[in-house]
Amino acid sequence: MEADAGSKIETNTSGPILPKACENCRIRKIRCNRQNPCSNCETSGINCRPAAKTTEQRSRVLLSANYEKQIEQINDRLTGIEDAIKTLRLTPVSPNNLPESGLSSGSDVSRSQITTPTAFEGASSFTSQAIQASQAAGRSLERLSGSAEVVDALSSLRNLVKPAGFGIIKHDLRLGTSVLPRVLPEIQLLPAQFVLTLLQEFRTRISALFLAYAFRDHKQLERLCQQIYFPTEPVTLASLTLMNGMIFYMIKELLFEGSYGACKDYDLKSYHDQAERNFHLGVETYEVFTHPSLESTKVLMLAMLKAQEEGKPLLAWTFASTGCRQVLNLGYHRKASLRNDPVGLAEDKRQVFWTFYMVDKNLSLNMGYSSTLQDNDIDAEYFCCSSDPGIAPWDKAALAMVEISRLQGLIYEKLYSRQALETSPEVKAQVINELSPQLQRWYEQWIKVDSSSSYLPTFFFIIYGAFDVVYYSVVTTMHRAATPSNTSVEITSACYEAAKKSLQAHLHFFPSFKSYGDAEILGSYVAWILLYASWTPLIVVFLHAIASSNREDVRLLEETEISLEPLKNLNQQSEQVYCLCKIFCKLAKAFVERRSTFVGSYNPQQDMVVIPQQDLQEFHHNLPTGTQSMPITQAVNWAEAPDPQVPNFDGSEMDGMSMFLGNWFGNQPVSNLWNMDFTENLE
């Protein structure tokens, strides 16, 4: 092998070395014939001792400056790696040595180095069936002496179709690979010293993010911060976005509690806004939506929950459906996919999956969409309930939410889906008879959940304290599907009672939330109670009122309207709920005062209302003058056609109501509420 051009090799170039005189002759200083034994020693009769061999001169390599430079560079790199590993420990890090600038350029965030997981494929896929075929062929080959050609072909087949060989290829995540965005979002990280202080603060207190948002690995944020602030490998956009989302919620929690601890000297509001901006920038990118990973699913989960909290159910549905597709791609819905994962990682994945499941089923029923996660394709195990008495109530409540979400999914699938709408009333009645006791058993178990020992009891009450409103709303929606025919609507006694209990539960629990005098708490009530429930009860009570001229119903609607008024300015959706309630209240009061019972037939013995479609036509014709020629399902502006017979009612509130009721009479959940605007005519 040739030596490097920059090196010089020196070797011994002398000829063969002659044997030396033996030791005896050298001592006696006489001539030796250099034989072994020599003639002198033989003559003297002594043992001849050959001379000691000299060490052979070895070739010596003289290193050039180039070699020395390379070795020095390697030593420097090893030293740098050792130093970086040492700094990964957060506690000994010196505050003065922390980096202050973050990832302000897209070049700092890796796109090409994203590790793509193995894609899950079901039993019907070509890959799964090819694996089964290769296994069957292998078993047959074991019983036969196959040729080398057959063995080689079978080996190639196994290598080709093994699950790891069908991972998600990065090129498959884009429509084209030649044109890629060169710059990722301009994300400026928060100061590292503040982040370190925040982490230290939450080492001494438990976070609602850990209890209520499926982030049970409380060390995850620390690991993310280490990876991003002290990177030893490329940073992914999903990790960067997830870190900012978690920091945003933790700062939000500090601001809500008003107890800042070690963070009291920082501008928390400014950092809160910056973390929120960073999170938004990361969420609204192609990578997060199309690169399935555990970090991406958690980003979408936080985005889904944040959209729900902001009163944006349509946006929440977008994030939920995308997240559901990702957990399906990753195989979180199958227990076999998690079998080889460490216990903690498997639990983490289960928490994420069942959180998406809950929101998916709830929004499916409330908005009238088919859910993404289908029960007939799920065998994932539930996450475990903690043995910690402070965490256990949160786990029990979350598992209860999974169960009622499953029932919500069954209600939509069996009573409101396109296929269910074509079934006979007898079949629907049978379904209701099967689901009703299941809901009752769920509620009996729900009220047994003891939260007295839970951590953060205020947060627990905010999220779950008024869940009776949601429960009775679900029961109302289920009974609402009972119709004698496709041309009429039947409000049974059970449906009406559930609707009343839902509104009464709201009136019972809302004063407790209002007493806090905090806009954040009221916003949480709107997000997780008012908007998490269907407002079918409001319509049921309204129709019962105008069909039976029931003044108690009118009073209940009036009280509900008054209670909702403080919430109308929190967000657009809460304003729409308030305006809808105000419109129904005015209409019900007007018709009951006039003793008009022309809408449907009312059976006082059974407390049942049946409203045929022709009665809806009659109801439409008795609305303010000048609107009778309009179709029922058309949004109409009645502001110019007041009804002099109805005091304090000028008809302007009815804009869009005919469309709304028309769709509701078509056996659909109250899904059009979020697409309509009732506020313009109430100002």
TrEMBL record:
Answer whether the UniProt record assigns the keyword Ion transport to this protein.
no
Name all Zn(2)-C6 fungal-type domain ranges: 21-48
Which InterPro entries does UniProt cross-reference here?
AtrR-like, XnlR_reg_dom, Zn2-C6_fun-type_DNA-bd_sf, Zn2Cys6_DnaBD
User: What Gene Ontology biological process does one annotation of this record name?
Assistant: DNA-templated transcription
Q: Name one GO molecular function term.
A: DNA binding
The portions of this protein that span the membrane are 455-474, 525-547
Q: Which residues form a coiled coil?
A: 64-91
Keyword vocabulary terms for this entry? Coiled coil, DNA-binding, Membrane, Metal-binding, Nucleus, Transcription, Transcription regulation, Transmembrane, Transmembrane helix
The answer to whether the entry has keyword Nucleus is yes
* Alphabetized SUPFAM superfamilies for the sequence: Zn2/Cys6 DNA-binding domain (SSF57701)
Protein's recorded name: Zn(2)-C6 fungal-type domain-containing protein
Q: Which organism is it from?
A: Lithohypha guttulata
The upper taxonomy is: Eukaryota, Fungi, Dikarya, Ascomycota, Pezizomycotina
